[in-house]
Write a sequence for this structure.
């Protein structure tokens, strides 16, 4: 695993080269669509969908609610690449496998990365179905995708994290939301590994240290995106309420349903955002 790291750049180039032969225009915007949020890709013009299983060096998505395609196309005249379904740490993938697509997006020419996810709401002002733009995160996964030898051609050894989520992009998203009559809240995302949900004591702890949301994705991709120099917007859909004193049992079907119900709002926001870029 550590040895593989040294040829990471060669694998990125191999994969990007393979993809370039199958697409007509380089993508400028990358989208990673989370749990229950796979609909947006359907709006892309001239779509070319490539199953992850065909892409050299890609892992294969195992989550039922995810399609498992890399889709190229254009939305509002902007060329984009969409990950329909992402890889999670709890599935058993390494962080390198999870973040490899972000590296490939960068190699293909992506400058702006938009990430969506389903998250539990810990801020008492958040309701199920709310859209929340991330302003920051706390990495509670206990791991980091940049551990290991650093390839200076991919990014610096000690990337700073003063603005992992671009202020410019959060403001742009807020403007687009306002124009479309959508509510877009803002918050700090606590990234955990899962797969179990959190204990009441963990929710109390996470709230105390400053988290508004909790989820099992996004943080690894954002860390690698920052390392690679991408400008990032991430939006959560609140799928369940994580208030420790009024906690209800959660099941994954409900989480997926809540994400799917809110997904038209997210689609409209992201479409408007891509147009405004
Ligand atoms: N905890 C962790 N991840 C989640 C949750 C949650 O409550 N809801 C959706 N993803």
């Amino acid at each position: 695993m550590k040895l593989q790291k040294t040829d990471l750049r060669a694998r990125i180039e191999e994969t990007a080269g393979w993809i370039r032969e199958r697409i007509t225009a380089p993508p400028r915007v990358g989208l990673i669509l989370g749990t229950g949020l796979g609909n947006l890709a359907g709006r892309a013009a001239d779509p070319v969908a490539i199953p992850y299983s065909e892409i050299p060096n890609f892992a294969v998505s195992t989550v039922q609610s995810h399609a498992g395609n890399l889709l190229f196309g254009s939305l509002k005249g902007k060329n984009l690449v969409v990950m329909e379904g992402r890889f999670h740490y709890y599935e058993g993938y390494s962080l390198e496998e999870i973040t490899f697509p972000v590296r490939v997006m960068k190699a293909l020419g992506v400058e702006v990365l938009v990430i969506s996810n389903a998250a539990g709401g810990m801020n008492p002002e958040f309701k199920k179905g709310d859209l929340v733009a991330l302003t920051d995160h706390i990495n509670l996964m206990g791991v980091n995708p940049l551990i290991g030898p650093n390839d200076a051609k991919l990014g610096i050894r000690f990337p700073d994290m003063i603005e992992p989520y671009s202020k410019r992009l959060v403001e742009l998203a807020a403007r687009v939301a306002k124009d479309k009559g959508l509510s877009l809240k803002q918050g700090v995302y606590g990234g955990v590994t899962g797969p179990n949900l959190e204990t009441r004591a963990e929710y109390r702890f996470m709230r105390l240290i400053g988290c508004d949301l909790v989820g099992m994705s996004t943080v690894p991709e954002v860390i690698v995106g920052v390392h690679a120099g991408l400008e990032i917007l991430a939006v959560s859909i609140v799928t369940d309420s994580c208030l420790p004193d009024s906690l209800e049992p959660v099941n994954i079907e409900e989480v997926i349903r809540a994400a799917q119900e809110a997904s038209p709002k997210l689609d409209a926001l992201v479409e408007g955002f891509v147009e405004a870029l």
User: Anything to note?
Assistant: The domain at 2-276 is CATH 3.40.50.1580 (Rossmann fold). Strands lie at 29-33, 45-51, 69-75, 78-84, 112-121, 131-139, 184-191, 213-215, 231-241. Residues 118-120, 192, 194, 197-198, 214-216, 239-240, 242, 255 surround hypoxanthine (CB under 6 Å).
